[in-house]
């Protein structure tokens, strides 16, 4: 990771490495704080399901959608027997992972590259290994190639000694039973080069790496929705799976809430698929490039993964499949042994012309940044919706996503419609004595569906804000006006209240600059302070204007109609 990943200039928080099972536990704790409670399956064998209940031990086995609702058939264990029950709901959001039962029940196909690689994932603990790495070679991701073994070690927590080992897997010649706890321990010893005394293997699971996107995210009159890995699955490098999934939920939440609360028609959910599908397609291409970049290193060492995969396919798909299984396994093991022999000191040294050339190629890959990348700020923070629940600017619709390069690109904040609202530190003027620093992202409510109109304290901007509040009130659209005062200039006490009377839905903030030469809010947004920015509940820009508007009421009716789907005419 780079120093700028931690400076909190582009975002109020720093980048983090966080494993999925820990996130799941954290989410459950947060849900409980919000009033949700977990219910054991046996206690809910009969009777209706209450609000804010989390049904543990239930598995979705079938889905049936109708025009006005969905029936979910779930199985659960009760008194030692598997039972089924039907659950009625208005909407179903399928976030049930890469092997989504919801997606399969609907017959929605995945499109992209299948079976990029089969692997076995070994979750284990070893504080001894963690302490060794902290002292000798701290890192997050280790690609290990030696004569005895090959694997990728993910360090989830060096202090606690928590790791996940990823090992290539070639069934049916190799079987999952081959990866016993003892065998995995020996493999860990070979990869680490250490006889570790405290290895505790927690879990062993096979999985398949894909790069695919669902052909559609919506079904059954928008009543059934796919999100997260159920809608797209990527190679893991770069964190695109978790980041893209969280973005899906962020995009969907306010739209679904708007429909349920009767603010927007159900057709607004079309924008969810329109917006998120384009990002999923882009991130799929980028993750594939990143995976291929990672494979440049073993290829340079004479361990081209495509060779092993080609032999494996030949054994399974062609004449090789008629060979006895023992012979097939022997052939595969022989290929692996020849491959690992390329890593011997005899081959891989500067005095051997072949080894010297390979080492030179390896240095070139690292020096030019051609290998695996872990940080993608431009994609994680700078992704932008081109069409959907937003008002595109004349020239922006024609722009297409810059083709993914697989290389790191830094995030450049902007306020173009569809972009994420830029971050800047601000302070609330309602409490001038407070030292609390907020982000502009905090101006968007997390507790309710609410749009935010950001303006500067000028007469024309106040006029626009009054028009927006009037339209929003008439059509029951939640809106708050935020007045952005320039750094060090708070000489208009009471001006906003007088200018926006009788409307009370506003707040005033003042810029907090890091230094005197730091850019202003409007400079960051690449606009003048005579403009205005309308922000959606998911912190993305819905619309902006850079100049005075002749008929603010008419304009705001048009804007809200496009963004929310509400008939404002």
Name the assembly state.
Answer: single chain
Q: Kindly name the structural category.
A: alpha+beta
The major β-sheet equals: 7 strands, mixed
On the 0-100 scale, what is the average pLDDT?
90
Q: In a few lines, what is going on in this structure?
A:
By secondary structure, this protein is of the alpha+beta class. The protein is built from 15 helices and 21 strands.
Characterization of this structure:
The model has no long low-confidence stretch (mean pLDDT 90). This protein has 15 helices and 21 strands. Strand 8 and strand 9 form a beta hairpin. Helix 5 packs antiparallel against helix 6, helix 8 packs antiparallel against helix 9 and helix 12 packs across helix 15. The strands form five sheets. Strands 16-15-19-18-17-20-21 form a seven-stranded mixed β-sheet. The protein has a six-stranded antiparallel β-sheet with strand order 8-9-10-7-11-14. Strands 3-4-5 form a three-stranded antiparallel β-sheet. Keywords: FAD, Flavoprotein. GO terms for molecular function: oxidoreductase activity, acting on paired donors, with incorporation or reduction of molecular oxygen, NAD(P)H as one donor, and incorporation of one atom of oxygen. This is FAD-binding domain-containing protein.
């Amino acid at each position: 990771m780079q120093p700028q990943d931690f400076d909190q200039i582009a975002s109020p928080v720093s980048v983090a490495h966080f494993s999925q099972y820990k996130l799941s536990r954290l989410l459950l704790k947060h849900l409980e704080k919000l009033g949700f409670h977990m219910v054991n399956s046996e206690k809910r064998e009969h009777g209706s399901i209450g609000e804010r209940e989390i049904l543990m031990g239930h598995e979705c086995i079938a889905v049936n959608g109708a025009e006005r609702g969905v029936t979910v058939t779930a199985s659960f264990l009760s008194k030692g027997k598997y039972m089924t029950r039907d659950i009625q709901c208005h909407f179903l959001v399928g976030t049930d992972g890469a092997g989504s039962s919801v997606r399969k029940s609907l017959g929605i196909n995945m499109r992209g590259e299948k079976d990029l690689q089969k692997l076995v994932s070994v979750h284990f603990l070893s504080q001894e290994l963690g302490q060794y790495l902290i002292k000798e070679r701290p890192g997050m991701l280790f690609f290990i190639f030696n004569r005895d073994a090959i694997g990728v070690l993910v360090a989830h927590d060096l202090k606690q000694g928590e790791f996940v080992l990823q090992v290539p897997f070639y069934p049916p010649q190799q079987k999952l039973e081959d990866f016993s706890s003892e065998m995995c321990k020996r493999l860990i010893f070979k990869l680490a080069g250490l006889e570790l005394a405290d290895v505790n293997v927690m879990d062993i699971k096979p999985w398949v790496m894909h790069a695919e996107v669902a052909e559609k995210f919506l079904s059954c009159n928008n009543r059934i929705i796919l999100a997260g890995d159920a809608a797209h699955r990527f190679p893991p490098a770069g964190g695109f799976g978790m980041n893209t999934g969280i973005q899906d939920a962020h995009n969907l939440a306010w739209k679904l809430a708007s429909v349920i609360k009767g603010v927007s028609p159900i057709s607004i959910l079309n924008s969810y698929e329109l917006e998120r599908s384009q990002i999923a397609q882009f991130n799929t291409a980028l993750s594939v490039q990143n995976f291929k970049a990672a494979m440049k290193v073993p290829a340079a060492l004479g361990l081209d993964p495509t060779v092993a995969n080609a032999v494996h396919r030949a054994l399974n798909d062609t004449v090789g499949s008629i060979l006895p299984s023992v012979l097939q396994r022997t052939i595969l093991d022989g290929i692996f042994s020849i491959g690992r022999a390329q890593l011997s000191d005899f081959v891989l040294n500067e005095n051997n012309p072949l080894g010297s050339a390979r080492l030179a190629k390896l240095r070139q890959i690292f020096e030019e940044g051609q290998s695996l990348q872990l940080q993608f700020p431009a994609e994680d923070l700078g992704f932008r919706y081109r069409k959907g629940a937003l008002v595109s600017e004349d020239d922006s619709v024609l722009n297409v996503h810059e083709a993914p390069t697989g290389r790191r690109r830094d995030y450049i904040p902007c306020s173009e419609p569809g972009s994420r609202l830029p971050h800047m530190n601000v302070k609330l003027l309602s409490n001038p004595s407070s030292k609390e620093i907020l982000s502009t992202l905090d101006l968007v409510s997390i507790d309710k569906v609410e749009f935010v109109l950001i303006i500067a304290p000028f007469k024309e901007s106040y006029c626009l804000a009054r028009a927006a509040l009037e339209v929003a009130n008439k059509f029951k659209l939640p809106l708050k006006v935020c007045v952005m005062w320039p750094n060090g200039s708070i000489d208009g006490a009471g001006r906003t209240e007088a200018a926006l009377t009788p409307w009370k839905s506003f707040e005033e903030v003042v810029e907090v600059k890091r230094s005197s030469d730091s850019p202003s809010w409007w400079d960051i947004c690449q606009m003048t302070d005579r403009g205005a920015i309308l922000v959606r509940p998911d912190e993305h820009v819905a619309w902006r204007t850079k100049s005075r508007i002749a008929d603010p009421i008419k304009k705001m009716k048009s804007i809200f109609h496009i963004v929310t789907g509400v008939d404002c005419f």
